[in-house]
Specification:
The protein is an alpha/beta fold and about 500 residues long. The chain folds into three domains: about 10-200, Lambda Exonuclease, Chain A (Alpha-Beta Complex), CATH 3.90.320; about 210-275, no CATH class; about 285-495, Nucleotidyltransferase, domain 5 (2-Layer Sandwich), CATH 3.30.420. It is about 45% helix and about 15% strand. The protein is built from 19 helices and 14 strands. The chain has helices at about 10-20, 20-30, 40-55, 75-85, 130-145, 170, 180-185, 190-200, 220-225, 245-250, 265-275, 280-290, 350-360, 370-385, 390-400, 405-410, 425-430, 445-455, 460-495, and strands spanning about 10, 65, 90-100, 100-110, 115-120, 150-155, 170-175, 280, 295-305, 320-330, 335-340, 365-370, 400, 410-415. The strands form three sheets. Strands 1, 2, 3, 4, 5, 6 and 7 form a seven-stranded mixed beta sheet that branches. Strands 11-10-9-12-13 form a five-stranded mixed beta sheet, with helices on both faces. The chain is globular, with a radius of gyration of 27 Å. The chain starts with 9 loop residues before the first strand and ends with a helix.
Length: about 500
Amino acid sequence: MSPPEKTAYLSKSLYTRGLQCHKSLYLHKYQPELRGEPTPELEALWKSGHEVGDMAHMLFPGGVVVPFDGLTKDEQLAKTREEIDRGTKAIYEATFSYNDVFVKADIIVRNRGYWDLYEVKSSTSVKEHHWDDVAVQYYVLSGCGLPINKAYLVHINNGYVRDGDIVPEELFAIQDITGIVKEKQASIPEELAEMRAMLRGKVPKIDIGPHCEDPYPCDFMDHCWQHVPEHSVFSLRGRGIDPWELYRQGVIKLQDVPLDSLNLMQRMQTEYFLDRKSHADPAKIREFLKKVRYPVCFLDFETFDSGIPMFDGTRPYQQVPFQYSLHRIDAEGGEAGHFEYLAQPGVDPRKEIAEKLVGEIPEGACVIAYNMAFEKRVLRELGESLPKLRKRLNAVIEGMIDLMEPFKRRDIYHWRMNGSYSLKSVLPVLVPEMTYKDLEIRDGAMASEAYFTMEEIADPAERSRLRKALLEYCKQDTLGLVRLLEKMRAMEAAHSKG
């Protein structure tokens, strides 16, 4: 008689991965080397999740943590059992295993002979996929004989404004999801059995689909999407035809898309790509250029956000500016002067950044930003926190024009923009020498990550290098706007002569 097959070990995260896609779970177990590198955004999200999780412990102070690092799984299980037997009231990262499913519960709290289970999320609301996360914990804890009374989801209350020390009871919102979690119990053994049967076979033949990014972007997308070319049905921008509908019909390349199925903007994107075309509407460009007055400033902010507000008067995930770059041309034909600011990490930068900025933007100046809704929001929130500067900051807002508008409307369009009007798509096409490729910091997520990292670096030379990289990146953004405006002037002038 052959020995019974070993049951595949699963965990809370592997179970939720398997619910999203069996192939993702299979690759994670057997071909982890195919996984893509985590993005700076994802790494920041993990870090934020840990900080939020630790802060949530303060809702039930005096508990005991079961550490993940430094202990084997068996030691974590034994430590949890020990704390339960000892009568400990609250346990953080309590560890359980049942039916070869291993889970660490964020917080469990003793409540009159029962236990309440709390799962902490750094999001500002409860999402449906969070329910499965709690449901599998409930399944394992109950299976281990722990009597569960209630199951809760703890998430960030984004209406909270910090005033002094963080008040955990106000920072967090707690939602009772016991009913939903109990309803899900019946389907869990079947789901686990299906996952384990799948893991005993070959890699599942699962094609790409909306599930690749829902509820989470899968870290095996680079591998599974290899057959999708750079210019594909998924390059189509804006609302219009469903690219998945085309994909299911076997249409993948942009050149194979039936043009009559597309809306005006998507059709334009496709036709321009096929014909390698570009255009610039001189009348529209002229109209936009008429709005530009002197002195003219080009402004770009870098911001960070944090689930736990760092400074008084800020909300969770509020965009707090820590850096700006400003190019200024005082009169027509003049040279662009450059001004910049980068805060010291760990201190509230808002007063200093606002004072320096209003000193460098002349009253009544024309201020150009790219996607100005973002800069306007940052300025408005600075004004709300600094009443003495509110009038000046509002005046800056009043004088703003958005350099994104002509590109969003496609007054200027080139097939290589691929339907996008983001600065990172527009700038390299129209001003090829303005590239971000050689920069150490290439986008906003990398910038805020670098800013936070600076605080942890002891070596002055390394800090100085990172500071220089941040200044270089931010300067590139506003210099790009100066060059873009020059390019638009040249286009308009060439047409006038023609």
